[in-house]
Sequence to fold (133 residues):
Amino acid sequence: MSAGKNDNSHSKNWNSSRLAPRFSSLRELSVSYEGFSEAIVTRPPDVSARGMFINTSRKFPEGAVLNVNFRLALTGIEIQSRCEVRYCLPEVGVGVEFVDISPESVRAIEEEVRLGNGRSAKRKSRTGSKLRG
Fold:
């Protein structure tokens, strides 16, 4: 989709059509808008091997290039990538796709998501058994 096109169809079913599993497992996230020097305030996002949702009140146009740097919470691995804004929810955040990320970083994120989702499933099963008992 081009940045100038005004088609919002991609955001209508975003949650129901995930291309990759996601998990909220980041710390130390910093985001910069290429060509600008201001700091961008963010809150912890969720991440997948393809991209992430960044919670921020800042509005970015579709196609804007951002640089992200973050540390995965479970493994402690640092990730750096360029990404493009794919959609923006005003006052909520932006969905970005990684466009320049190393294969090692993709594998590290996939492992983090796998580990994190495994932990979530264990917690749910423990909680469920306590409620039934």
Observations:
- The mean pLDDT is 76.
- The longest helix spans residues 103-132.
- Helices lie at 9-12, 103-132.
